[in-house]
Amino acid sequence: MTDQADLFESATREIPLTEALGERYLAYALSTITSRSLPDVRDGLKPVHRRLLFAMRQLRLDPDAGFKKCARVVGDVMGKFHPHGDQAIYDAMVRMAQDFAVRYPLVEGQGNFGNIDGDGAAAMRYTEARLTRYALALLEGIDEDAVDFRPNYDGTDDEPAVLPASVPNLLCNGASGIAVGMATSIPPHNLGEVCDAALHLIEHPDAGNAQLVELVPGPDFPTGGVLAEPRSVIEEAYATGRGALRVRARWEVERLSHGRYQVVVTEIPYQTQKARLIERIAALIAERKVPILADVRDESAEDLRLVLEPSSRSVEPEMLMAQLFRHTELETRVSINMNVLDGGRVPKVMNLREMLRAFLDHRHDILLRRTRHRLEKIAGRLEVLAGYLIAFANLDEIIRLIREADDPKAAMMARWEMSEVQAEAILNMRLRALRRLEEVEIGKEHKTLKSEQRELRKLLKTESLRWQRIAEEIRDVRDRFGAEGEGGARRTEIGDVPVDPDISLDPAIEREPITVICSEKGWIRAIRGHQEDLAALKFKDGDRGRFVLRAHTTDRLLAFGTNGRFYTIPCDRLPNGRGHGEPVRLMIDLGNDQDIVQLFVHESGRRLVVAAGDGRGFAVPEDSVVAQTRAGKQVLNLSPGVEAQACAPAEGDSIAVVGGNRKMLVFPFSELPEMTRGRGVILQRYAEGGLSDVAVFDRGEGLTWRSGQRTRREPALDRWIGKRGHAGRVVPKGFPRSNRFFPREI
Question: What is the CA radius of gyration of the chain?
Fold first, then answer.
C-alpha cells in the first residue's frame, strides 16, 4: 500500500485552479466553435448537417428512391457519427426540410415537419425523409477522392471532413449559431445571383465587393418580404461582413364597398412566427396601443394571408402599416455576422468577396483531386485493357499456356512482359469474352480512355482550362437550381428606403407639450408643459440633472451611447413626472458599463456630427440613425478601448474640435465626410489624451461656448483655423475647464 501511495503521489502535480479551469474551458470553447456552432466556408455546413447528409446517402435515400423513417436516419447518425442527443439531431434534420426556414431544402420530408405558425414537427417515428437533388449536388464526387475522410468518434468508421459542395451552399442557405465568445448569422441568398457573382470573380479575379454586390443585391429569404435598406448600408454590410438589414412584410390594399378597404399581408419577415405575430397584433388592439386598427384575421390556406381592418376608412393605409411596423414583427432587422471556419478550420469574419473566393478555391481543389483520381482509374483500366489486347493477339498461345503450364500467370508475365495485374485479369476472363465483337469493344474503350487521359493531363497542367471547367460546373448548377430551375426566382423584393409618415400626424397620439428630464445616473421622466423653473426639480440622493428637453408627446428622443449606438425613445412612452421617473436602461438595451453621450429631440432632415475619443468622426443624416428596436442602431464603429465622446447638430459651415490637452482646431465642415456607419476620419491629432467635444457653427457669427452662467463668443478664429487632422492650438482665454463648449449638467 505504501508503494502504491508513493507512486500515486509521484504521478500527481499541483496546479492553480485558475489554470486548470482555463485549460478545460478553452478546450470546451474550441470544441463548441469548430464542432458545433460555426459552419465551414467551403460547404456551408456544421458537422451535424454534414453527418446527416452523409448518413442518408449511405442509406441510399436518393430523390428517386423511397422514403425512410426519420428515426432510422437519426439512429444511424447518432450511432455512427454524432454522439449527441437524438432530439438535437432530429431538430437539425427538421429544419433542413422546412421550405420556410431554408431557401434550398436539403431534405424532402413526408409527414408533419412543422409550419410557419411555429408548430413543431411530429415525433421522428411518424415522419419520413429522403435527400433532395440540391443535397446530392453537395455530395457530388464524394466517392472520387474529392475530400479527406477522418475517423468517427470511436474509430470504427470514416466520415468526410467537408463535402465537395458543387453549390455555394453557405451563401445560398445561410447559417446561424452561437459559440463561446463568438456567433454567426448569415442570411440566405438567391443561388442564381451567387453563381453569377462567382462567375464574375472567375473572369475578373480582382473584382471588388462593390462589383459583386451589383450581382448579389441582398439576401433572398424563403418567406419573401421586402428588403428596405439603402444601397450604402447593404454594400457596407457585405464589405465588412457585419451589419443589420431591415426586412418588412409585403402588403397590399384591397378595396371594399362604400369606400372601405382592408390591408392584406401576403409575406412576413424571415423567421417570424405567424401565430405569435397575430397574438402581438391582437394584444395591441386589446390594449388600445394602435387604436386605428380594428381587427386582425388569419385567412391563410396554402398561401399566407393576414387581413387587417382599420377602425375608420379615413385612416391612411400607410399610417396604419407604419404603426404596425413600429410595434410588431411585421418589420424586423436581420443580423449579418459572416463569421465562419476557413479552410484551415480557423474562425474568421469574411466579406462577400472572401466567401466567394473560398468557395471557388474549394472547387479548384476538388477538381484537381477528382482529376487525379480519374487518371488513376484510367491508368488502371488501360493496364487491364492492354493485357486483354495482348491476349486477343496471342489467343491460341495463351490458351496453351493456361492448359499446360504449372504456373500460367508467371509464364505469361515472362513470355509477354505483362504486369501481375494484366496476367490476373486474363486468367479471370470468361470464355464468352473471347468473341471477336468483344475484342472490337475493348479496342474502342482503350482508344476512348487514352483520349480522356490526354485531356485530363492537359487539364492538370493548364490553370485556365481548370477555371473554364469550374465555370461550366457553376453554370450547370445555376441552370438546375437557379431562377429557371428548382429553386425559382428571387422571392425577397429589393425595395426602396421606406419613408414612414410623420408620427406627429398619428391620430393615436395626442400632441401635448412636455419637458423631458434625464438625470446624470440615467433616470428619465416627462413633465406636462414646457417648464421654466428648473431649480425646483428634485433628484435622488447623489444624483443631479443632466438633460432637460422641451418636446411634445408625438416626438422621438435620440440617445447616443458611448458604445457608438443610437437609441430611439418615443416621448409618449416616457414615465410621468411624478417621482424620479424610471431608469432609461429599462427602455433601451444600454449596457451598465455604457453611458449616454447626448440626448436630444429628433428633427427630420437634420445632420449630426459624431466623434470618438480617439479623434475620429464623421457627419451622418439624422434620419438614418433612428432605430426601430430597443437594441438601437450601430453608427460609430469604435476601436478596442475607445468610447464615443461627442454628438452635435451639424448646423453651420465650420467645425470646432477640442481635445483633453486643451488644444482647439477649427476647419471647414466640408472637409468632414458624410456616412451612415463607420469609423470616420481623423478630426484632430493628439500626442496624448483624446477628443473632448465638437461643435458646428457659422464662421461669420463666431464660435460660442458657455462658461458658468455666462455665454461667451469668440469672433476672431484665424489662430485656430487649420486643416482637418492637425493638432490645433491652446484654447481661447476663458474656455471652460471641462473642455466642453456647453456643459452636460443642468
Answer: 35
Whether 80 has a pLDDT exceeding 60, the answer reads yes
Identify whether the C-beta of residue 500 lies closer than 8 Å to the C-beta of residue 316.
no
What's residue 289's pLDDT?
A: 80
pLDDT in tens, 585-596: 888 888 888 899
**How do strand 663-668 and strand 729-730 relate by DSSP bridges?**
antiparallel
How sure is the predictor about 744, in pLDDT bands with cuts at 50, 70 and 90?
low
CA distance 400 to 612: 94
Q: 471 with 199: CB under 8 angstroms? A: yes
Which 8-state DSSP code applies to residue 37?
I
Sheet hosting strand 128-131, strand order edge to edge: 68-69, 128-131, 107-110
In Å, how far from its chain's centre is CA 346? 17
What average pLDDT does the segment 149-168 reach?
Answer: 93
Q: How many Å apart are CA 514 and CA 574, to the nearest integer?
A: 10
Range from 429-433, 619-623, 697-701 carrying the lowest mean pLDDT: 429-433
pLDDT band at 34; cut points 50, 70, 90? confident
Specify the pLDDT at position 364: 96
Burial bucket for residue 524 (CB in 10 Å: 0-12, 13-18, 19+): buried
**Rounded to whole angstroms, how far apart are CA atoms 625 and 643?**
18
Task: Output the DSSP codes for 380-407.
Answer: HHHHHHHHHHHHHHTHHHHHHHHHH-SS
Nearest to 222 by CA among 54, 337, 334: 334
Measured between alpha carbons, how far is residue 28 from residues 18, 33, 176, 648 in Å?
A: 15, 9, 19, 46
Distance CA 145, CA 158 (A): 13
Distance CA 31, CA 11 (A): 28
**pLDDT-derived band of residue 9, with 50, 70 and 90 as boundaries?**
low
Q: How far from 196 is each of 46, 109, 190, CA to CA, in Å? A: 25, 30, 10
- What lies within 8 Å, CB to CB, of 436 at 6+ separation is none
The set of cell numbers assigned to 451 is 483520349
Domains of the chain: 38-165 (3.90.199.10), 250-329 (3.30.1360.40), 357-481 (1.10.268.10), 503-730 (2.120.10.90)
Strand partners, 254: 262
Q: Which residues are catalytic?
A: 126
Angle at 504 between CA 502 and CA 505, to 5 degrees: 75
